[in-house]
Amino acid sequence: MNALLSAEPHHDAARRFLESLAAHGTQLVFNRLLELELREVAFRYPLIQRYPRDWKRRRHDGRTLRMARTLIETTMGAWQELLSAFTYAIVPVDAVYAAVSELMDRYGLQSYDAVHAATAVEYSGRVIVTTDAGFANVPEDLLVIYINSGRLPWCRQVRARRG
């Protein structure tokens, strides 16, 4: 989302990073869950901005649905534009299903994060690009994390504790 929406706090850095990856011929590997999560974040964004305390209650309101739908369309259009700069592979979620339980049980990942981590471990050379520091719970020899500099110290602490 940081790369897709200009209002996101790390937009410029995320865009530059992805442009660099594209210039170097990097292949993106992801699963469809990522696209569903992009849609969900885009749906929530205008609701949270307009109704920070009760956005969940407003989720089904017709006026907010129109706002959300517009941002979803913009976000998914930006996603398609981003993908056009890369070669990419889409991994079906069921292809990593067996690995998800172990990542959840062993490292405490939430289910969706475990799907992303399993996709990275099984299909993308054990590398993930994220702004979610929770992936630091997975050992470095299993998963290499590219993360924004603000979250890097915390990730290093987590990994040092896990030893």
Summarize the structure.
This protein has 163 residues and is mostly helical. 57% of the residues lie in helices and 11% in strands. Helix 2 (32-50) packs across helix 3 (62-83) and helix 4 crosses helix 5 (111-123).
Written description of the protein model:
The chain is mainly alpha-helical and 163 residues long. The protein has 2 domains: 1-15 and 32-88, no CATH class; 92-163, no CATH class. Helix content is 57%, strand content 11%. The protein is built from 6 helices and 4 strands; from the N terminus they run H-E-H-H-E-H-H-E-E-H. Helix 2 (32-50) packs across helix 3 (62-83) and helix 4 packs across helix 5. The longest helix is centred in the middle third of the chain and has 22 residues, at 62-83. It is globular. The mean pLDDT is 93.
Helix and strand arrangement:
Layout lengths: L10 H13 L3 E5 H19 L11 H22 L3 E5 L1 H15 L3 H13 L3 E4 L13 E4 L4 H11 L1
Parallel strand pairs: 1-2, 3-4
Number of helices: 6
Rg calculated over all Cα atoms: 17 Å
What's the mean pLDDT score?
93
What is the ordering of alpha helices and beta strands? HEHHEHHEEH
Task: Classify the oligomer.
Answer: single chain
Helix content: 55-70%
The global form is globular
> Alpha-carbon distance between the termini?
31 Å
Number of domains: 2
Largest sheet: 2 strands, parallel
Spatial order of strands in the largest sheet: 1-2
Strand content: 5-15%
